[in-house]
TrEMBL record:
GO terms for molecular function: DNA-binding transcription factor activity. This is MarR family transcriptional regulator. Residues 17-149 form the HTH marR-type domain. It comes from Parafrankia soli. Pfam families: MarR_2 (PF12802).
Amino acid sequence: MDAQQPRWLADDEMQTWLALARVLIRLPAALDDQLQRDAGISHFEYQVLVGLSGAPERTLRMSSLAVFANGSLSRLSHVVGRMEKAGWARRTPDPTDGRYTLAILTDAGWDKLVATAPGHVEAVRALVFDPLTRAQQRQLGDIGRRISRAVDPAGSHLDELST
């Protein structure tokens, strides 16, 4: 029995894929560069601040925060350790289940996020929204949600909060 042939991309599909691949590579780097330059933090660190800021009482289990920020628990632990030294976060055992550790955004961490967000939002606007028409922006949202559902059929809550 013959093995099923690959469904090769048509020329126009290949061009679309290559354009998306360039965005997937270059956009995160551009956002990281802006945050490093203007706020001295990485995009991952910004995502951690955002995740904590949107959580009830600015508190999340480290394991949930790692999922939200799309990083390993080890990477998150190092980042939160640096944030603790800066006074932006603290860790404490989860009082409901001591097997877990909670990360808590401090007032200083909130202040860091508030100071950082305007520059980051301006970069997102300049790099993503300004080049597009309103109709294209809506299409991009629809496309992003469709691809996200294909990548994550379980429909994790991560897409609603991250920027």
